[in-house]
Every structure is written in C-alpha cells, then in structure tokens.
Design goal:
Layout lengths: L9 H25 L2 H54 L5 H83 L3 H13 L6 E5 L2 E2 L8 H9 L12 E3 L12 H4 L3
Parallel strand pairs: 1-3
Antiparallel strand pairs: 1-2
Helix pairs in contact: 1-3, 2-3
Length: 260
C-alpha cells in the first residue's frame, strides 16, 4: 500500500515555490541568451532558400531567353534563304499571278524577319536585366550566408556553454516537482504562464510587489515574513516571498554572457 505523503507546512511549500522559481528563471535566462538567435538562424535559412529559388528561376529565364534568340536567329536565316530563293524565281515567272505570289512570299518573309529582330532586341534587353538581377541575388545570398554562419556560430557557443547547466536544471526541476503539492504546482504554472517573464514568485521590494510594483500593505508584509501561509499579490496574483534569490553571474558562463 502506497505511503501517504506527510502534509507540508506553508513555509516548506514557500521554500519549494521559491526554489522552483529560481530554477525556472535560470532556464528562462538560457533561452534569453539564445534569444532571437534560433529565430534569426531559421529566418536567414528561409531567406537564403527563397533567394536561391529566385536565382534558379532567373537563371532558367535567361536560358529560355537565349534559346528564344537562337530560335529566332535560325528562323531569320531560313527566311533570308527563302527570300534569295524567291528572288531567283522572279526571273523565271511566266505570268503576273506567279509574280504576285512570289512577291507576297518575299514580303511575308521580310515581315517575319522584322518581327523576329524586334523579339531578339526585346529578349536581349530582358537577358541583360536578368543577368544584373542574377549578380544582385548572388551577392545577397553570399552576404546572408556569411551572416548565417556568424549567427550559427554564436548559437553553437551558447548551446555548448549552457547545455550541461540546462540539463542539470531541468533534472532539478523534475525532482523538485515530484515532492510538491500537485494543486500548488498547478497554480504556480498557471500564474507563470500568465506573464511573459515567467515570474510566478516574486520578492517584496521597497514595500511593493516585485512583479507588478503594486503597493503591499504592512500587514501583508508581516504575513509574508511569518511564512504561515502562501500570500499572493492583490494586484497581479503572483506569489509573494522575501527569500527569492537568483544570482545569474554564478550560473551563466562568461563566454555565453558575451553573446547576450
């Protein structure tokens, strides 16, 4: 039969809460150290992928444009050959109907040549614009790739410097939670999730809540010092303490601090 846990005193519960908050604040700080770096790395990777996609498309456009010019050039050579052929045939026509038919064919081929030359000029301009765009894209990819390497290196240093500590903190949190009142733990996490800084337990500083800075009455401060019950801030609902201590300098490696 499972042994029933002994009812914990309010002081013990407060000690557990402040310890838990201290551990969580340190893990939160590790995430702050990583900060925007993970997102910046992902954003840069996405940007580079997008630029590479645009680069490939633009390069394909140039290839297709050159194929178009090549095709139009061949078509013009064929038209010129036909014109030469029709010019020779004009010298041996037997009647006006044949002459008119050949003249129309020559006119048609000259028109085709004009249309093809116009298309070649337009496509040549498109190629010039696209080639400039290709150089700009390559430059942008190079710059962002260099920036990505720097960000990845910075993130790698922080992860390396904090990996062991973060693992130990998470293990300590899990161990502490096993001994805590489930309802109290649930309330702690509810408060913690309410605020971006993750502070569910705060000190009373200068007669004010360390979370919302709301004024704490003298009687409430006295209750906090006696530690006979869990006291919360009337303004923000955070758990109030007078023993919460967190010294980040004793925890975070100096090399990681440089990357903050």
């Amino acid at each position: 039969m499972a042994r029933r846990k002994k009812e914990q005193t309010a002081e013990k519960k407060l000690q557990q809460l402040t310890k838990l908050q201290s551990l969580h604040t340190k893990t939160d700080y590790i995430q702050v150290l990583k900060g925007e770096l993970p997102m910046e790395v992902v954003d840069l990777e996405d940007e580079i992928e997008g630029l590479n996609t645009r680069l490939r498309k633009t390069e394909n456009d140039v290839v297709e444009a050159k194929e178009t010019i090549s095709g139009k050039t061949v078509a013009n050579e064929e038209s010129k050959a036909l014109i030469t052929k029709y010019d020779k045939q004009l010298n041996s026509v037997k009647n006006n109907r044949e002459f008119d038919a050949l003249s129309k064919e020559i006119e048609l081929q000259n028109l085709n040549i004009m249309i093809n030359e116009k298309k070649i000029r337009e496509t040549t301009t498109l190629i010039e614009v696209s080639e400039r765009k290709i150089e700009e894209l390559k430059q942008a990819i190079q710059e962002k790739s260099e920036n990505l390497k720097i960000k990845q290196k910075e993130l790698s240093v922080i992860v390396k410097d904090t990996e062991k500590e973060e693992k130990e903190l998470l293990e300590s949190i899990a161990k502490l939670e096993e001994d805590m009142d489930p309802k109290l733990l649930k309330g702690y996490y509810r408060i913690r999730s309410t605020y971006k800084n993750g502070l569910a337990v705060v000190n009373v500083e200068r007669d004010a809540c360390g979370g919302c800075f709301g004024k704490i009455p003298p009687q409430t401060q006295s209750d906090i010092k006696l530690k006979q019950k869990i006291t919360t801030c009337d303004h923000c609902g955070r758990i109030l303490s007078d023993v919460l201590e967190i010294d980040m300098d004793d925890f975070i490696p100096a090399s990681a601090m440089k990357n903050e």
